[in-house]
Amino acid sequence: MGKISEHVFRAVNSASLAGWYKTVMGMQVTEDASAKTWTAFYPGEGVKLVFQEVASKGTTYKSNRDSCYWKIGVTVSDVDLARDKIMAAGTQVSVPNQFLDVGYLCHLADPNGFTIELLQHTFKQNFVKPIPDPSLALGQTAVIGQITTRSQDIEASLGLYRDTLGMKLLSIQDISDYGFCLYFLAFTAENPPDQDLNSTKNREWLWQRPYTTLEIQCRPGQSCVPMDKEGEGVDHITMEVEDYANILTKLKADQSNSSFPDPDGIQLKLKSASR
Description:
The strands form two sheets. The chain has an eight-stranded mixed β-sheet with strand order 6-7-8-5-9-12-11-10, sandwiched between helices. Strands 2-3-4-1-13-15-14 form a seven-stranded mixed β-sheet.
C-alpha cells in the first residue's frame, strides 16, 4: 500500500521551527545534523513534516490564496481544547466555528507563516467532550489529517493522483456557495461508510482517519500559481507508490530523482512502497 510519507518545507531557522512544532503542537522531532534537516511528526500513520534549512537572505514565505499550496490540517477530538493550549503557548488562533456541514475548525500560522487548520473529529452539534490528557501538548492525541492543495482542473488532478498513483477518492464536498469544491484522496483500502462520495455522512468519518489525506480545493477559473523553487516555501511532497518503475515511465518523470510537478505546480517526489 502506498502512502504520503513526507511533506518537505524550506525554512529559515528550521531548528527553532521544529522546536515550535514539538513544544506547541506536541509533535516528536528528530534531527539530521549532516543534512541540516529536522523532522516533526505524530506517532502513527500520518505524514512527517521535514524542514530543510535555507539562507535567511532568501525569499520569506507568505501564504497566498492563488498558490497551488494551502495548508496542513491537524485533526483532534476537541478543537476548543487544542486552541486553548496553543493560545496559552503564545500563538494566535482564529475563533473556531462550524463551517457549513464540513467541519468544526479554526486556523493558525506557525512561526514561519505556514498555515495550519485544526479540524474536529465531529461536527459541533455532535461533540461529546473527551477526558483531556495533561501529558500531551494539545491535551489529546492528534493526526496530520490533511495536506491541502489547489487545482484549476480537477480531472487532470484525479488523472494523476487516483488513476496513475493509485490513491482512492474518499469524499467530494461541494462548497459552491464559496466558489469551490473539495476532493479528498488517500492511499487506503478503506471505504467510506456511504458509497455516495458526496454524502455528508462520510465527513466525520473522514476527520477520524489515522492517516493523511490529500485534500484538493478546486476553484474553476481562478489562478493557481506553482510553488516557488527558492527561498522559504514548500519544497515537495513525497509519496510512496506501488508499481513504482512503471509509474515513473508512464509519467516520463526524472528518473534520477523521481521528481515532477503535478498539473498545478505541486512538486512531487516518488519512492517505491516496497523499499
